[in-house]
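User: Before I run my own analysis I want an independent prediction to cross-check against. Here's the chain; please return only the structure tokens and, at the end, one sentence I can use as a sanity check.
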Amino acid sequence: MRLERIAVAFAVAMFSSAAFAQAYPNKPIRLIVPWPPGGPAEALARTVTTKMSEVMGQPFIIEAKPGANGTIGTAFVAKAAPDGYTILFSHLGPTAISPSLMKDLPYDPVKDFEPITQVISGPTLLVVRTGLPINNVKELIAHAKANPGKLSYASVGVASTTHLAGEMLNVAAGINTLHVPYKGSTPAITDMLGQRVDFAFFGISGSIQQARAGQLRAIAISTLKRSPNFPDIPAVAETVPGFELNSWYGMMAPAGTSKAIVQRLYQEVAAAVKKPDVIEWMKQNGLDPVASTPEEHAAYIRSETAKWAKAIKDAKVTTN
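Assistant: Structure tokens:
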């Protein structure tokens, strides 16, 4: 009798979960973007979720909650109800980098979330201001060595991927450059256009248009090899062997969200990034669609966390 009751309870639970998943969603879904509004993260989120909405029958409300290198918005979702209606547009920084930098991180990236998928992978673009006589990585390194501590590089914030990329280059190339943090990519790019800061590693989708227009000079890309989307731009690794930095965005739900909902969201992201117009948009912005399974994304987060812990230690980066 006890085994029968367990079997019945299990069947009821499975039926209830399946029925709930079929009814989901029955109201708008909030997608929390932990970066300032109007930036490349929001543009990517809208491009993907527009396609998801068409199939799921409910709109995605994109809500920016910026601050503290993405940890404010990430913490908000960690504390949200696990009902599938508040989802995080996750990013490498607050997910895999911040755990090695912040002792009082208000969430656990592994325990407090259900990974849904890695949406895209995207390299960063190494750009210099047009007023500098620098056209490649070799010249940048030579200029930095001839002027120690005088070249400045912009980032979107302390301990961001754009900050760590600069420190990684300092360590790998044996140079000394000055870090200038900003609150987001827009003011950082504005100051580069105004010739007030010398170089930067920016997400390719947020800087490629200025580079194409000749407002910034793109001298390298952060993948180990040249990107098929931009074959004329050399890889940093061609001059600094082994240098690699790939930024990524994904989706995660609060811990406890049903597997049926997680699976549904994963399937819709995977379908969205296969749409021809989405593929073309990503190509134009230098992004590679991924759409990994929830299990693959969970494993990737663990590997990225370990990788960046070592990079941060080697570069001696702190938030103090």
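Sanity check: Strands lie at 29-33, 60-64, 86-91, 113-129, 152-155, 178-181, 199-203, 216-221, 246-254, 288-289.
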